[in-house]
Amino acid sequence: MVTDWRAAIVDSADMARQIASEIPAVVGSTSITVDQAALLYEGIERCARALDRILEDMPQDEVDPALGEAAETLADLWAVLSVAAANKIRTLRGLKPMTSPGDEYRGDDDAGDA
Q: Residue ranges under compositional bias (Basic and acidic residues) (predicted)?
């Protein structure tokens, strides 16, 4: 069976774009519940796991390196979406948001310019 890797990645990218367009409203919402945020997080994680399976299976076929790079970039996007949704859940529960290594270098300050 031949897998259409391009179609699989395009489908995942389309879903990521849709969710990415909705994340700012969700994160900024004061009316969303923990359960609603958890459903969003679970959906994101399901999509991220599907892409992970694609990334695991792609090396078995001869895949254009550009397609592999696109899949890796998409995996990074799913990770960002996952953290955003998880942080909404955390803040709704009164917890501090998670940070990622390097976050201190992403602000407007010059912390990383030594």
A: 103-114
